[in-house]
Fold this sequence. Notes:
The complex is a heterodimer of chains A (about 190) and B (about 290). With about 190 residues, chain A is α/β, with parallel strands linked by helices.
Amino acid sequence: MENNYPFSEESINSSISFRSLVNATSYPGRHFQISKLKKPNILSNAAATILITLCDNESNVYLSKDFSTDEVKDWLIFNTGAIVSDKQNADFAVGDWESLLPLDEFKTGVPEYPERSTTLIIEESNYKKIKCNINGPGIKDKLQIELPNPELFINNSHLYPLGLDFYFTNDLDILSIPRSTKISVTNSEY
Amino acid sequence: MNDMSKDKNIDIQIYNFAYLDENTKRMIRRALLKALCIPGYQVPFSSREMPMPYGWGTGGIQVTSACLIPKDVLKVIDQGADDTTNAVSIRKFFQKTANVAVTEKTSDASLIQTRHRIPETKLKEQQILVYQVPIPEPLRFLEPRETETRKMHALSEYGLMFVKLYEDIAKHGHIETAYAYPVKTNGNYVTDPSPIPKFDNPKMNNNPAIQLFGAGREQRIYAIPPYTNVKSLDFEDYPFEAMKANFKCSICGSSDSYLDEIIVSDDGKRSYICSDTDYCKEQTQLNSKEEDQ
Lengths: 190, 293
């Protein structure tokens, strides 16, 4: 009988998903692929995979307005036991770029415990994209990518070793910008 | 599935894939990702009791367990050697609980768990190197209180470490520390490279592979992402020097690999051999090919 769990084979699927996350986090600015899973329609496969692979009953998850539906909440709570929380206490936050702003309400960690910070999962939407150069750990020389509101990412990297960590999700695609990544805008007109 | 022995099928049913349960893996995985986002910072995690004693790689084995995927090719080394007790047991452990392929060849491995060495063969992108770490806190022997060392890291207050290196110079004329030589990761956190010889320190810098560190008893996980600046601490007038015994391997003749000193006779005669058994094998094969030609 086919089950309704997100992963058809939990321990195998979660390990493969996590490995993609390790690669994405280790090589910021590069695209990595994950597989399909059973999830609410509004969530991308990539965003759903991050939640299912990482969240448990110790995780506070903030769902921004369009994503804060009963379907998403039921799915998340049933499958992970995670706590749906407000912005200030969130360990994970899911939403499209505009609905997650302003970023300064999320926790960025404290000097003794910089890891106590929010991981943002940003779903693809029609935000204005600006060309940026990125370098730092995980990036050989430099890479060019497109980011919304680069100044917010630049501010975030100035908080290092505190700060927020970002995953951009689009269907099966995942790209990470951790706090350690340095960003500069290529277009001087901006 | 046909070539799998009956016993192996049973083992896979007994254990969750790669031994640890899913909840434990989730907790370790969250710690690992934060560790990669904050290079060199030690993330606390609730380490589990493993079916082996502390000091035998309980941290490394938990990190490996959380990272392993079915198509991985696993290599395990202890002081560079694939055939020592610790390496053999850990390799067998994951063959039994995850049914993954294993290898002794560094270039064929997708995940390498190591105790106290970095392989001589250059690592590649997306290869994972998991270190077994006894004492993750580089400041621990200088300041025993966790509350204090945590504050020192938060304030980047590393004067004490430089005093220690300076005292080495004052006493011995050079920096005496030969293994677990402290490094600064991404210009920020002073990090313990685990007890690798300082000969291996330069290999950590700007390495294309992913370096993960697990300390089971001390309950810490940390990471050095690929292409990260890793600098061994030193002074302008006493620069860091990677060193090794100034001999050739008596098996393969290599003069650029790290050597183990072995006593070969009752009257204390010494011989030197590569500590990296895979590298030594490779060099020996290369040599015999050259002789054939």
